[in-house]
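G., the chain you wanted modeled:
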Amino acid sequence: MAGPAFRAAAVRVRTPATSANLGPGYDTFGLGLGLYDDVVVRVAESGLHVDIAGEGADTLSRDESHLLVRSLRTAFDVLGGQPRGLEVVCANRIPHGRGLGSSSAAICAGLVAARAVTIGGAEKLDDTALLELATEIEGHPDNVAACLLGGFTLAWSEAGVARAIRMEPARSVVPVVFVPAKPVLTETARGLLPRTVPHVDAAANVGRAALLVEALTRRPELLLAATEDRLHQDYRAPAMPESAALVGRLRADGVPAVISGAGPTVLALAEDSAADKVAQLAGGGWAANRLAIDMAGASVLPLA
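Predicted structure as tokens:
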């Protein structure tokens, strides 16, 4: 059987940063953020060439072990076969190891680029299959769902298959991220979580997660209560004490603040009118950025 045919022209894919959990929605909620990685992929005559600029340029591999390349290869296998060669150019802006979904951005960029450069790729690998494949690579669906769909996402697994829905955040909500200088490995943060939690804590989180859907989409005045968490943030605090302390200070000031993903970045969900003031609250040692909520998700863009 003949393998797939590939486009001669390069494709450009943009993937957003993401914040997972949002407090109580552990491994469930995600939010697309207006901070992006760009990737250009072209099918070549032979070999593999990877060029990286920006975040990770000094540390990331430029061979088959690169996460984006591995994701490309996985998608090409599903699409029917590998191209003869690949040229990959990465312009990375999402900080690595900070809880802003850099690995999900790389995974989704690879999958979307492989589909785009393959003739008939969208028919062979539809959006549902794309989410399933991204989740298989990442291990959980919260970040990849927000990266692929944009907006405010709720992801779950049904009979072992990843599913997600996208909701529209209230327009007045502005994410402010506080990024520390040092990373924390996701594996380290996950390793601090207990195997069981008190029933009262689980019940509290269920209520807060349900409230967060209403708060983030329609009633932002409820965000402080809706972002309370008892399942993961306190357990992870020893790995990121400065982040935990900042969350505590912000919340004491009435700012809905949480650990972004596995940390150590802190995410505040501010009202538009207060976002600039909130960005000044962390003090030294933090890179504070007011971001938009990304509403497009992973996108194929013109090369120009």
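The longest strand covers residues 29-44.

Shout if anything looks off.
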